[in-house]
Design a protein that fits this description.
The complex is a heterodimer of chains A (420) and B (283). The two termini of chain A are 53 Å apart. Chain A has 420 residues and is mainly alpha-helical. Chain A has 3 domains: 45 residues; 102 residues, no CATH class; 221 residues, MetI-like fold, CATH 1.10.3720. Chain A contains 19 helices and 2 strands. In chain A, strand 1 and strand 2 form a beta hairpin. Chain A is 68% helix and 1% strand. Chain B has a single domain, classed as Orthogonal Bundle (MetI-like fold), CATH 1.10.3720.10. Chain B has 12 helices and no strands. In chain B, helix 5 packs across helix 7, helix 7 packs across helix 9 and helix 8 runs antiparallel to helix 9. Chain B is globular, with a radius of gyration of 24 Å. The chains are: A mainly alpha (420), B mainly alpha (283). Chain B: It is found in: Cell inner membrane; Cell membrane. Chain B: It holds the Pfam family BPD_transp_1. Chain B: InterPro entries: MetI-like, MetI-like_sf.
Chain lengths: 420, 283
């Protein structure tokens, strides 16, 4: 057709070639779409993405020593950390000046905490020497050695030399129970100080148990809902959605009321004579409490994706399997079950991701033994104030979550997520 | 799910066993929520049923924890804070999220999957990590311990819900309706107000409700970002559970269960309305 047009090209009424016009229209609508997304994107970058990157950078930031011991670090330039001799007098003089200044502008507290993370006892060494260095006369080496014997320890100097760069991996090492040896090699920390590897594993295995339990409990419910007539299943669906919509704190509180030793369940058991009054079950403030409460809280997140997949499986498949002679269990295992695997994957990944990042419930019902790694992020944020370590643990957890999120996105697609 | 006529005896037994199992799981889901309602009327400061309560003696029941709640300035103040923060962050999240959803539903949106993954990420990133990150960053830019800081943080958390619900509504939106309206002589404005808006509104409203309840129930971020001036109701409950365990918390919990029942009903009505408007058979 187009060959019959004199110019050889189709044009719009005002003479623009059709191709150009179409391209222009597509470009315009693409721009419009981007402009609509732009405000939200900008907002999220400022209020969410930048904070996350700020946290990631904090997990490797190491400014305290480079800033507050700048003269010492410069003077240590020529000192060989492998030598068996203490640094010379100029280094001690620089240190005394740095500490005196730190004492003056109150930066010494942060410096001492930072050094103390690496080597215990450094807090008092820095604080005491800071006080002494204000009135110290040369020779500084003798003065400082007298103020605290940490300055006569080669390890101290190797530590300062090693941690003088503006970035460090030591928070990440601490987050997986490793540390630098005095020789600068990465080694395990002493057995009695190992906690984080165990915590990461506990978080992962307890989350796996919770995921498995939600699957075992959620599968029959999803199956029932998907196979009942709509009117009935909508009614029962409310029983799934109501807990989903109820405040997390309410659901945690109610488990405290039920499970605690003077709680409802123990009282019933005592009244029924199953247990003696002085032998009440300890079901809360331990692993069991965390697992029960979190299984309850996360169960709807398993049921909903399972249900939406089972809803799409035609009942005729099972009828066909039965009419071809399959026994009920065999038909279920070979025909129905394989079709539900996408739903199982979606629900399991979702529950697992949510579970390893849970903080509130383990903190309230977990006691000492049922705590998750998240509780230690909060501990270092609020109590020990070791923010670098908090950021490093959070970054490791974030990495794990992002990996699972990408898998989830690949398998299910985030835009397929349904909310009730 | 009815038993087919050809079912064997063992299948019939399994059918009832299965029903029984499902009933038990439903009890596990809903029982704990129902149990706190009578407990919140306990006349004694215990978290369990007293002898008087079990024998339905009126003396065992009282409104004292509700009175305690409604006369405590700390609780009332925390409710006020929760509403201020919840409403502001919901408005912000709804406006930003709806605009973005409109863009994302466009056929010509480039890198749709990538943007979607990014916009939904606040829902996936563990709250403690978001909270820690926002605490560090907001402290730097002097937003920590302010209403604005908490509102912005809750807006971030509410956005994924708005984006998900509104894009879901838009993806099932039948664009031939627009052309039909035009061909029947409606002006673009009239088409927008009479056709597009009524069909999209239920999605936007349920997105807004999701965002509101997210903010209303959020503890972790408030714990880190807010100061003592912005204590919200969940924070009050959190410290109540940790420090002075009193059944006032059960009264609050009962009120919150009622709130979630109301919310769920609203959402269900919205869903039915939107299905009716689309000409789908109501389920």
């Amino acid at each position: 057709m187009s060959s019959s047009v004199s110019s050889g090209e189709l044009t719009t009424a005002d003479g623009v070639p059709l191709k150009v016009s179409l391209r222009r229209a597509v470009r315009r609508s693409r721009l419009k779409a981007l402009l609509l997304v732009a405000p939200l994107l900008l907002f999220l970058v400022i209020a969410f993405v930048m904070p996350i990157f700020d946290m990631l950078s904090r997990s490797v930031a190491n400014t305290e020593i480079a800033t507050h011991l700048s003269r010492t670090v410069a003077a240590l330039e020529d000192w060989d950390p492998r030598s068996d001799e203490l640094p010379e007098e100029p280094v001690y003089e620089a240190l005394a000046n740095d500490l005196a200044e730190g004492h003056e502008n109150r930066a010494i507290g942060r410096l001492s905490s930072r050094l103390n993370y690496e080597k215990s006892g450094m807090r008092s060494a820095v604080m005491r020497s800071g006080m002494a260095s204000r009135t110290m006369d040369p020779p500084y080496k003798e003065g400082l050695l007298e103020a605290h014997d940490a300055w006569g320890d080669l390890e101290t100097w190797r530590l300062i030399k090693r941690e003088s760069s503006p970035y460090t991996l030591s928070y990440y090492l601490a987050a997986i129970d490793k540390q630098y040896s005095p020789e600068g090699e990465i080694v395990d920390v002493a057995d009695d100080r190992r906690i984080y590897q165990g915590l990461f594993w506990r978080t992962f295995w307890m989350s796996s148990v919770i995921t498995l339990l939600t699957l075992v409990l959620g599968f029959p419910i999803a199956y029932l809902l998907a196979n009942l007539p709509l009117r009935k299943s909508n009614l029962l669906m409310i029983l799934v959605l109501l807990p989903f919509w109820t405040s997390l704190l309410v659901r945690t509180t109610t488990w405290i009321a039920i499970l605690q030793s003077q709680g409802v369940l123990n009282d019933i058991m005592v009244v029924l004579g199953v247990i003696a009054d002085d032998a009440r079950w300890q079901m809360i403030h331990n692993k069991l409490g965390t697992i029960i409460a979190m299984t309850h809280i996360l169960l709807p997140f398993m049921i909903l994706p399972l249900y939406s997949v089972m809803k799409t499986i035609p009942p005729s498949y099972m009828h066909a399997a039965r009419s071809l002679g399959g026994k009920p269990f065999l038909s279920f295992r070979r025909v129905y079950f394989p079709l539900t695997i996408p739903g199982i994957a979606a629900g399991a990944i979702l529950v697992f991701i949510l579970s390893i990042g849970y903080y509130i419930t383990p903190a309230l019902v977990g006691g000492q033994s049922g705590r998750f790694i998240t509780n230690y992020i909060a501990y270092h944020m609020q109590t020990s104030l070791n923010w670098g370590l908090a950021a490093a643990i959070a970054s490791i957890l974030l990495f794990v979550v992002v990996v699972f999120y990408l898998v989830f996105n690949r398998l299910v697609g985030v835009d397929k997520v349904k909310l009730g | 799910m009815a038993i087919p006529s050809y079912a064997t005896r063992s299948e019939r037994i399994w059918h009832y066993v299965f029903r029984g199992l499902c009933a038990l799981i439903f009890l596990f889901l809903i029982g704990p929520l129902l149990i706190i309602i009578p407990l919140s009327f306990n006349a004694e400061p215990y978290f369990t049923f007293t002898r008087e309560m079990l024998s339905f003696d009126p003396a065992g029941y009282s409104w004292r924890w509700y009175e305690d709640f409604f006369t405590s300035s700390r609780w009332l103040n925390s409710i006020k804070n929760s509403f201020i923060i919840g409403i502001c962050s919901t408005l912000l999240a709804t406006v930003l999220g709806t605009l973005a959803a409109l863009g994302l539903s466009s056929r010509h949106m480039p890198a749709r999957g990538l943007f979607m993954a990014l916009l939904i990420s606040p829902m996936i990133v563990p709250l403690i990590i978001s909270a820690a990150a926002m605490f560090f960053f907001f402290s730097k830019i002097h937003l920590a311990q302010t209403y604005l800081g908490v509102i912005l943080a809750h807006t971030v958390l509410g956005i994924p819900f708005v984006v998900i619900t509104v894009t879901a509504t838009l993806s099932s939106f039948d664009t031939t309706l627009i052309r039909a309206a035009h061909s029947l002589g409606a002006s673009p404005q009239r088409t927008f107000f009479k056709v597009i808006l009524p069909l999209v509104t239920p999605g936007v409203v349920s997105g807004a409700l999701f965002a509101f309840i997210t903010s209303f129930d959020e503890v972790v971020v408030v714990l880190f970002v807010a100061g003592p001036g912005q204590r919200t109701m969940p924070i009050q409950m959190w410290s109540g559970i940790r420090e002075e365990i009193s059944p006032t918390i059960l009264a609050v919990a009962t009120l919150l269960v009622i709130l979630s029942i109301l919310l769920l009903t609203t959402l269900e009505l919205l869903r039915r309305r939107s299905e009716r408007l689309r000409g789908m058979t109501p389920s």
